[in-house]
Backbone:
């Protein structure tokens, strides 16, 4: 009986992990739309994907959720722009952005 309860609990938790993973990926994808818009405004014509990845990979969960919410309108607000600039200013993000820029010149 105890084993059955443990197995059931493990299955429920596994289901939660899958649902959380899907929600997290969906939030990241929506946030990327917002970041893409911000970066495209700053660097028209550039391949923004590597820069967007740097921003998303260095954002907090709260920042990702905030940026994901901005994707609904299709046009980033001033708050979204400020959030992207804040994230880009972090040392790890700056290093990533530098590597992305150098890669653009090498490619």
Residues:
């Amino acid at each position: 009986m105890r084993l059955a309860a443990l197995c059931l609990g493990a299955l429920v938790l596994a289901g939660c992990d899958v649902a959380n993973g899907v929600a997290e990926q969906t939030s990241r994808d929506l946030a990327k739309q917002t970041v893409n818009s911000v970066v495209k405004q700053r660097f028209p014509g550039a391949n923004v994907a590597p820069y967007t990845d740097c921003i998303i990979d260095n954002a907090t969960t709260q920042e990702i959720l905030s940026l994901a919410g901005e994707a609904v309108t299709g046009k980033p607000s001033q708050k979204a722009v400020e959030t992207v600039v804040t994230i880009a200013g972090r040392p790890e993000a700056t290093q990533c952005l530098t590597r992305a820029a150098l890669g653009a010149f090498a490619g």
About this structure: The CA atoms of residues 30 and 68 lie 5 Å apart. The chain is about 80% helix and 0% strand. Confidence is low (pLDDT under 50) at residues 1-14. The chain has one domain: 24-106.
